[in-house]
């Protein structure tokens, strides 16, 4: 079993409004955030860092994902 499933690496789940508020304030590093089932459809996420982020069942349709870092 990988650590992805078994380790408690994520901070509490962040909702769409909180993520967008923080992004608008200039934050780009969302490392370790639980974004499971978040709706980011049609959202501009240029330059975000989503390292070790849980994006299970997230809606990213038509989201702008230029220069997004998804490395683990």
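Q: What amino acid sequence fits the structure above?
A:
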């Amino acid at each position: 079993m990988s650590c992805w499933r078994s380790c408690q690496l994520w901070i509490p789940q962040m909702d769409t409004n909180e993520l967008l508020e923080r992004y608008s304030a200039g934050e780009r590093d969302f490392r370790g955030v639980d974004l499971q089932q978040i709706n980011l459809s049609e959202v501009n996420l240029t330059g975000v860092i989503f390292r070790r982020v849980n994006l299970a069942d997230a809606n990213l349709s038509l989201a702008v994902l230029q220069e997004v870092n998804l490395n683990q």
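Q: And what stands out in the fold?
A: Residues 16-24 form the longest helix (9 residues).
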